[in-house]
Design goal:
Elements lengths: L6 E4 L3 H12 L7 E4 L2 H8 L15 E4 L8 H10 L8 E5 L4 H10 L3 E4 L4 H18 L7
Parallel strand pairs: 1-2, 1-3, 3-4, 4-5
Helix pairs in contact: 1-5, 2-3, 3-4
């Protein structure tokens, strides 16, 4: 039996959240998806603060992070994650509609593990999310906890 790990989706577009959930459902990964709509909420979740104060501790297996969001965008969120010694080793996959070269370079400079441009077509989007979920939440082996 494979132990399913939590995926944190940071996405402000409800349609993309719904598509991501649908894509992950096929492999029973949707049950382990936590969705927040901006970087402020993501950091609260990761640090067990505010509305997430009582959640079970432990880091997600992967963070799927959009770039263009209100309050705290994905690049600022990635930077905050990488500066936090308790969070810096969490894999972060930028899952974004931005094809802008400066965004891509900045994300890799800040330590993104992957940069995936959201496919425009429904079927391609679903396939991309399935592959991301299977690799990071099932196949990838994170470092041992100290």
């Amino acid at each position: 039996m494979i132990e399913l790990k939590t995926i944190l989706l940071v996405e402000d577009n409800p349609h993309d959240v719904e598509l991501t959930l649908e894509a992950l459902t096929e492999y029973n990964l949707a049950n382990n998806l936590v969705s927040v709509s901006n970087g402020v909420q993501a950091m609260a979740y990761l640090c067990c603060e505010g509305e997430f104060e009582g959640r079970n501790t432990g880091n997600p297996a992967v963070i799927l992070l959009d770039i263009k969001m209100p309050f705290m965008d994905g690049i600022e969120t990635l930077e905050a994650i990488r500066k936090n010694k308790k969070l810096k080793h969490i894999p972060v996959v930028m899952l974004t509609s931005s094809r802008e070269d400066p965004d891509l370079k900045k994300c890799y400079t800040l330590g993104a593990n992957a940069y995936v441009v959201k496919p425009v077509h429904f079927r391609e989007f679903m396939e991309a999310v399935k592959h991301i979920g299977i690799f990071w939440a099932v196949l990838n082996e994170p470092p041992a906890k100290n």
